[in-house]
Design goal:
seven-stranded parallel β-sheet, Rossmann fold, 13% strand, globular, binds NADP nicotinamide-adenine-dinucleotide phosphate, alpha/beta, 247 residues
Length: 247
């Protein structure tokens, strides 16, 4: 896809990867609106308040964005939370509910809000955001992995359902990136700007790839195919030792 001259909404663009991607689109000459609950910290981009767990908020945001930008042609569903859960403690259900409401239902709500507009235009791009963890579990974040695997499956069906409308669907699959506190706990997390360099190169290909896979996520994406899955899950399970009461 061409990332210049587009009109872009990034829901979940108020920090981290979303904000970085928003600035890349803006630098390339696109008009960008970033959405989230905490828009106050952004002073270099247009913002819209949106809480993707609240259906009314999503519709209000849609109406505001389309009123100002009737030519909107790119929607990125970046909003997400990454929560640790201890499945031996039933209290984890609170984190599970927040995760599904934000990452999975929130993604579906944002897509639903803008799909009729994009179909009516006869063209545009929906960018969903999953994770390497959608393809290779990280046992410390069980519902997170489930939510992102769900978004992957949903994306595949969405692409099939929108075929022939002119609306393309691509899935960004980040590995660990040094945002949202990852930089403090995961030395392997990719520096944001280097990650974005790769993303911009891949997403700019024509035709747009179905999946945006930077080199660092290939080991997750292809673990089952490559026969490395069981060993990697075992290795990644060592992170469970960091939970209270485990060693
Ligand atoms: N960093 C990584 O290692 C990594 C790896 C794979 C995938 N990802 C995915 O990449 C995306 C961005 O992650 P990040 O690392 O950039 O994290 P981040 O800095 O915490 O950004 C998360 C974004 O989601 C928004 N958000 C959270 N809850 C929301 C809600 N209820 N309604 C609307 N927006 C909401 C936040 O905005 P407000 O707080 O302003 O609402 C923020 O803009 C997420 O989907 C994440 O799962 C990240």
């Amino acid at each position: 896809m061409d990332i210049s001259g587009r009109t872009v909404l990034i829901a979940g663009g108020t920090s981290g990867i979303g904000l970085g991607l928003a600035r890349r689109f803006a630098d390339a000459g696109s008009t960008v609106v970033v959405g989230g609950r905490g828009t106050g910290r952004i002073d270099d981009l247009e913002t819209v308040k949106i809480d993707v767990t609240d259906p009314g908020s999503v519709l209000l945001a849609r109406d505001e964005v389309l009123a100002h930008h009737p030519g909107l042609d790119v929607v990125v569903t970046m909003s997400g939370v990454m929560l640790v859960e201890d499945l031996r403690d039933p209290a984890h259900i609170a984190q599970a509910e927040t995760t599904v409401a934000t990452n999975l239902l929130g993604t579906i709500r944002v897509i639903d809000a803008f799909t009729p507009h994009l179909i009516e235009r006869g063209g545009g791009t929906i960018v969903t955001v999953t994770s390497g963890i959608a393809f290779l579990p990280f046992p410390l974040m069980p519902t997170y992995g489930a939510s992102k695997a769900g978004v992957h499956a949903y994306t595949e069906s969405l692409r099939a359902q929108l075929a022939g409308t002119g609306v393309e669907v691509t899935e960004l699959v980040p590995p660990a990136v040094a945002t949202a506190g990852q930089e403090k706990v995961n030395p392997a997390a990719l520096p944001l700007e280097g990650f974005l360099d790769e993303v911009v190169e891949l997403i700019s290909e024509n035709p747009t790839p179905d999946e945006i896979l930077v080199k660092g996520v290939h080991q997750h994406r292809w673990a089952e195919r490559d026969g490395t899955y069981a060993g990697l899950v075992e290795r990644r399970s060592r992170s469970l030792e960091t939970l209270p009461g485990r060693s």
